[in-house]
Design goal:
By secondary structure, this protein is an alpha+beta fold. It has 15 helices and 28 strands.
């Protein structure tokens, strides 16, 4: 039902009695990041002017210019406020838009013919909502809406750009639905199996090519260069620890429907490795009508979730792993949907999400989930692992920043979010590169960073490998078997202060041999990944048999498991979870706690890509974690 409370009384009467807003000309506020035809959508016809649109005006939040400062106060090990995480209520109070912004936008909308009784302000004051006809919206935003069609995904509507009065621009971040014509997250950052010569980058509907080899279950520490198992990872990263505070700790793994794990696959894996876990299952949280199908379907639909859970559950046993299964089978979901579920302050009326980016719930499509959008239904876990990605060019800066801010807020509340960095080196999903206009192009030569891994407030995880013929006791190299560790520099996000020293050192000491036309070489761009772990030759039980799997999809849950165990040790001595760990990773005091990776590269876009070298590099970040060394250090922190 529509909420009965519209605007706070003080704001409502301020709008009623305010002098008419100063009229000013409209100026461009936002334009589409990528043309729909590049994503398989084609303009069909003008949207009927009578079509009702659920409009959401994202108000400019206060103190966003201080987000990094406030985040570092509770995340930098050298800060006197370290680990003093915020409560959800404190987050709302800190970042809620000002009354001035609410009044200005409300007054303008009323002056534009949208009566005040149609306007609704959400609980965190971040969004103003109202329903309006396409004709009304086109007049207000000086734009035109069209219907776009896709051969397999039906129809969507949107506009190419929109404008706002000059005096309103500073009060609005973005407006939905408008220009955000983007795909859902791609399946597992190109999760791959060895499949001969033709390796495909899967989408959320497709998957990698069919495997041609079943893995014999005879792996030992002597052949970890060919078969990675939990035993190999424990030896590689000195993971010698049994959880003591599993009930107090929390670890989440995100999955997007239609991907799902198969219980019998977990048992097959656990029977051959940690046999005491046979019968163990994740705690499943179903977000926005999500479903978990229990029978084998295909590697494309079962491979990612089986991989994530088999290794997350094995490495952290007896820690309960929470599966954040997101989206129904009809509509699917985007990154905002799982964020809605773990942070009620991020939710908006009717979900408030982007219809071309996120699942819209209740789902009006036949067979879709008709329940309420999942808003704040579960507390954010201390650690979250996400093995999905999309290309950065598919989002507008306004959309990217709005979502990135949320990751920063989660960090302030004590949650660490690990995102896999991609499997195509400096190229994007499917090996796609960009042209000079930063649009996808066949034969493109411009590097294509991923999102949200490029957001500085997530911890980006790249991939390494045990080089052929080497052992767990030898230095690893950057992953160059089947996949290449995603890495590079953002075209949207500036360099955060916590990585400034090491990234600038890299650019000065090891200048990449590429022009500014190929990547953002401004020296002021967010570099990624932050950290890495093995991503080659993983033995995974999928659909009743064992496969060898490759990808940063494997690296992310491994790193997330390690930091979950570090949190466990802290909780056991009555200390808080680590929260946002990037300042710790980049701290001069912790650099010897990581295994530096100095060989290999991440080719793509017709180039060798970047090269792993001493210190940070845009292939493997700061290197791989040494659990024992990190454990000793984090126990000394507040």
């Amino acid at each position: 039902m529509r909420p009965t409370i519209l605007l706070p009384a003080s704001i409502f009467w301020a709008c009623v009695y305010a002098a008419p807003s100063t009229q000013s000309h409209h100026v461009l506020h936002e334009k589409r990041a990528v043309e729909p035809h590049a994503l398989g959508w084609f303009q069909d016809r003008r949207l009927d002017a009578r079509q009702l649109l659920p409009m959401r005006f994202g108000l400019r939040q206060q103190n966003m210019h201080r987000l990094e400062e406030l985040l570092l106060e509770v995340s930098d090990p050298l800060s006197p406020k370290y680990n003093q995480h915020y409560t959800p209520a404190q987050i709302i109070d800190t970042f809620a838009p000002s009354d001035e912004s609410i009044i200005a936008v409300t007054q303008w909308l009323v002056d534009s013919g949208i009566s005040s009784d149609r306007l609704h302000l959400d609980g965190n004051k971040g969004w103003i909502h109202f329903d309006a006809t396409a004709g009304e919206v086109e007049d207000i935003l000086k734009t035109e809406y069209y219907i776009y069609v896709h051969s397999s995904r039906g129809e969507q509507y949107g506009c190419h750009n929109y404008s706002l009065p000059a005096h309103i621009r500073d009060h609005v971040d973005l407006i939905k639905p408008t220009v955000h014509f983007n795909p859902h997250p791609s399946l597992p950052t190109s999760l791959q199996r060895r499949a001969g010569k033709n390796l495909g980058a899967p989408s959320i509907h497709g998957g990698p090519k069919k495997a041609t080899d079943n893995v014999p279950i005879t792996p030992t520490l002597s052949n970890c260069d060919q078969f990675i198992t939990p035993q190999c990872l424990r030896s590689l990263y000195s993971i010698y620890y049994k959880p003591l505070s599993a009930k107090e700790n929390s670890f989440g793994v995100v999955a997007f429907t239609p991907q799902s794990y198969v219980p019998s696959d977990l048992d097959l894996f656990f029977k051959n490795f940690p046999s005491s876990q046979v019968g163990a299952r994740p705690k499943t949280v179903l977000i926005d009508g999500a479903v978990v199908k229990s029978s084998p379907q295909s590697f494309a639909l079962n491979g990612e979730s089986d991989l994530d859970l088999e290794y997350a559950m094995s490495l952290t046993y007896p820690q309960t792993v929470t599966l954040l299964q997101t989206g129904d089978e009809v509509e699917g979901a985007g990154f905002d949907n799982w964020l809605d579920a773990v942070d009620g302050s991020f939710c908006k009326y009717k979900g408030g999400d982007d219809p071309s980016q996120d699942g819209m719930y209740p789902d009006t499509l036949p067979g879709g989930y008709k329940g309420k959008a999942s808003c704040g239904i579960v507390a954010p876990p201390h650690v979250v692992s996400v093995s999905y990605i999309q290309d950065e060019y598919t989002v507008t800066p306004a959309f990217a920043n709005r979502q990135c801010y949320e990751y920063g807020k989660l960090g302030m509340m004590g949650t660490t979010v690990f995102h896999s960095s991609g499997d195509n080196g400096v190229a994007g999903n499917g090996g796609v590169c960009l042209n000079s206009k930063h649009q996808p192009a066949s034969g493109g030569t411009v590097f294509n960073p991923g999102f949200p891994v490029s957001c500085p407030y997530v911890t980006a995880v790249g991939a390494t490998q045990i080089n052929p013929g080497k052992t767990v006791n030898d230095p690893e190299g950057a992953c160059e078997q089947v996949i290449y560790s995603g890495g590079g520099f953002s075209n949207i996000f500036p360099m955060p202060s916590f990585q400034e020293s090491v990234v600038k050192t890299f650019l000065k000491s090891h200048p990449p041999p590429y022009t500014k036309g190929q990547f953002n070489n401004s020296g002021n761009a967010r570099g990624f990944p932050d950290i890495s772990a093995n991503g080659a030759n993983f033995v995974v039980a999928v659909d009743g048999k064992f496969e060898r799997v490759y990808g940063t999809s494997a690296s992310a849950p491994v790193v997330a498991s390690i930091f979950t165990l570090l949190n466990d040790a802290r909780l056991a001595v009555k200390k808080g979870p680590l929260g946002f760990v990037n300042p710790l990773i980049y701290s001069p005091m912790t650099r010897l706690l990581f295994n530096d990776i100095t060989s290999g590269g991440n080719q793509g876009c017709g180039t060798p890509g970047f090269t792993a070298t001493t210190g940070w590099d845009p292939v493997t970040g700061m290197g791989t974690p040494n659990f024992v060394k990190l454990l000793a250090y984090v126990l000394t922190l507040a």
